[in-house]
Every structure is written in structure tokens, then in C-alpha cells.
Amino acid sequence: MIALLRRMFGVGGGTPQIAAAHPRDAAAIAALHAQSFHRGWSDEEVESLLVDGRVLAHSLRVGGAFAGFVLSRRAADEAEILSIAVARRHRGRGFARQLLNLHLGRLAALGVKALFLEVDESNAPAIALYRGAGFREVGKRPNYYPLPGGRTAAALVLRRDIA
User: Fold this and answer.
1) Which among 25, 69, 73, 144 would be 20 to 30 A from 52, CA to CA?
2) Closest C-alpha to 89, from 71, 66, 111
3) Which long-range contacts (CB under 8 A, 24 or more apart) does 43-49 make?
4) Does residue 81 belong to any structural domain of this protein?
5) How many independent structural domains does the chain possess?
6) How many Å apart are CA 70 and CA 57, to the nearest integer?
7) 61: domain range?
């Protein structure tokens, strides 16, 4: 019960800190991505994103421990969120929203006017996060995400104008 109360009220977990992600974060990002999604990214894939000048990446630490990330890739005045995840034990405390809000501000400062992303149509928490941040559905990709057992899930394509 005490653990639940600590999670609900953010007690004992430390202060969340969001900063630019660096190549040294690649292994932690890859591990969290693998825990959060059906097809994880390797350390090398993440590191190649983190050194790409078109990629904007932020990491979340809680009490000094790695707890989340967001990555997007810019092209001209548009960008696409590639991935966002928060460690299970830190979910439900508003950290994803904090990550996303800071990221949106940084993208706007870089001149990004429109932001896109794809999300599994059955991922209700992510869809609620994005809709709450002003994203709207602009398309759907059937059979986009591979699932266990040879099944697939559709991706919703969402957009948010920033400026």
C-alpha cells in the first residue's frame, strides 16, 4: 500500500529531470524500448539515431536513474516522433506528458511547424497522451505493427501543428 501511495504522489522516487539524450544513453534507451515495444531497437540503432544531427532526443531520469526517453527526427519544418517510453514503475505519474511537452517546445524553437507520429490503435494510454497534447488523427495504416503469433495491428497517423 505504501508503494502505491508513493507512486501516486511521487514520494520517494526523486525529482524528475529531463535533459538532452547522449550517445552514452543508447544502451538504456534500447533496453527500455525493448521492454516497451514488440520490436526493440539495438544499442547500435539507438546510437546511430543519437548522433544524427536531424534527431532530437531527450532522456528522463528520476532520482538519478534512467526512466524514459523521447526521440524525433526533423525534416525541413516537419518532424516525426520516432518513439517515446517511460519505464513501467514510473508510469501514471505524468512523466510522459512532461517529456512530450518539453520536446514540443524544443522542436518549436528549432522551427518545426508540424509534428507527426504513428501509434498502435490499441495503445489507449499513448493515444490519450497524444490527444491530450493536441494531436489529431490524419490517417491509418492497416497491418502496420507486427504482433506475436503472426498477427498485426493498425497504426493511427497523428499530427499536431506546433506554430
Assistant:
1) 144
2) 66
3) 47/23, 49/73, 49/82
4) yes
5) 1
6) 6
7) 2-116
Active site residues: 118, 130
Residue 151 lies in a domain: no
In a domain, 136, yes or no: no
Q: Mean pLDDT over residues 64-75, rounded?
A: 96
Q: For residue 128, tell me if it sits in a domain.
A: no
Question: Cα(105)–Cα(121) distance, rounded to whole angstroms?
Answer: 26
Cα 14 from chain centre: 21
CATH assignment at residue 86: 3.40.630.30
What digits encode the pLDDT tens for the residues 74-91?
A: 999 999 999 999 999 999
Q: What are phi and psi of 159, to 5 degrees?
A: -140, 145
The pLDDT score that the predictor gives to residue 2 is 52
pTM comes to 0.87
Q: What are the E-state strand segments in the chain?
A: 16-20, 55-62, 65-75, 78-86, 114-120, 136-146, 152-161
Coil, strand or helix: which one is 112? coil
The three grid cell numbers given for residue 42, joined into one nine-digit string: 539495438
Residue 26 phi, psi (nearest 5): -55, -45
Burial tier of 127 (Cβ tally within 10 Å: 0-12, 13-18, 19+):
middle
